[in-house]
Specification:
Length: 324
């Protein structure tokens, strides 16, 4: 695997510092959600995927389990390079990889994830389970991942973008990202992309307000990371977690809300940030989709929808697109 070498790590640290300074200096404070995924955050997210309330993972596993044959037949038996953006612990992907290997597909698998520890763990466990699978892991963010992708040869590719990771982008960001992704691959390459579909509000909100409080820990970890990595002085019990459905934007929005008037010093930024009682820091939006929206997104980005695969409850869709 291409490990996050020392240069890469310090570059990531510097970007984190710059983005926290920018985000907390705005009138409406925010921190980019990609910074939730340090080693602790990636571990907490793995725990979230096992929660009974977090239906997304079970639904997508069900989608892939029920449709792995048709997906495998559609992309054909040729040599194929599978590149996964935001691979995480790869538990869902294994369903597909296992089946493709059993069908004698000649596979290269390249998991890309912002968390170096996640990529290292996944590569190790896949090596053990599938000694024949050729793996090249990359610890980097989506945008550098796309730069790398655009430099690859013309071998046939299947890009995986699972888990409704696309839902963290606002609609204009999602459009730009998918166009950029399309430009980084070739005509005839495939994209399998997961969408969490709009459903009753209680079900969606419960997925982000689990009874064990793991999601709260996951979101709050971003302040702990500022304390750990940037010498921040956030008092974790001076912020409350809030995650609610926004009916106008069709998204779950997650905030950390200051419970008092306070100032927080962050040593490496040489800056104190002021928070008023009730003031929120926006951490994450998780947009939800209709299947018609998915179709428009595909066409706008230069793809054609080959097929939509649903789970038994129609909660989630994995959509197979071909670049045209
Ligand atoms: C990994 C972005 C799909 O938005 O549902 C889970 C992250 N945040 N619980 C999501 C997340 C809180 C997740 N994604």
């Amino acid at each position: 695997m291409m490990s996050p070498g020392q240069d890469n790590v310090s570059k990531m640290q510097e970007e984190f510092a710059v983005d926290v300074l920018k985000g907390l200096s705005q009138p409406v404070k925010s921190i980019p959600c990609k910074y939730m995924y340090d080693e602790q955050g990636s571990e907490l997210f793995s725990q979230i995927m096992d929660l009974p309330e977090y239906y997304l993972t079970d639904c997508e596993k069900n989608c892939l389990e029920s449709h792995k044959e048709i997906i495998s037949d559609t992309i054909g038996p040729s040599n194929i390079n599978i590149v996964e953006l935001g691979a995480g612990d790869g538990m869902k992907t294994k369903i597909l990889l296992k089946h493709l290997l059993e069908c004698d597909h000649d596979l290269h698998y390249c998991p890309i994830d912002i968390s170096g520890s996640a990529v290292a763990n996944l590569s190790r466990s896949l090596n053990r389970e599938y000694p024949d699978l050729r793996i090249k892991g990359l610890a980097t963010d989506y945008f550098q991942g796309l730069t790398w992708l655009s430099q690859q040869n013309h071998a046939k590719k299947l890009i995986l973008f699972l888990g409704s990771n696309i839902g963290n982008f606002s609609p204009p960001e999602a459009r730009d990202f998918l166009r950029h992704l399309r430009k980084s691959i070739n005509v005839g390459d495939y994209l399998l992309i997961g969408f969490d579909l709009k459903k009753d509000i209680n079900t969606m909100q419960s997925a982000y307000n689990d009874s064990q409080g793991i999601t709260e820990q996951f979101i709050t970890n971003i302040l702990e990371r500022i304390n750990r990595d940037l010498g921040g002085e956030f008092e974790l019990n001076c912020f409350n977690y809030s995650s609610k459905w926004d009916n106008f934007d069709n998204a779950i929005k997650s905030y950390l809300i200051s419970i008092c008037n306070q100032q927080v010093y962050v040593r490496d930024l040489l800056t104190s940030f002021t928070f008023k009682t009730g003031e929120g820091i926006h951490i994450e939006s998780s947009y939800k989709f209709t299947i018609d929206q998915c179709l428009v997104m595909a066409e706008t980005a230069g793809f054609e929808v080959v097929e939509n695969y649903f789970d038994d409850r129609n909660y989630f869709a994995d959509s197979l697109w071909i670049a045209n």
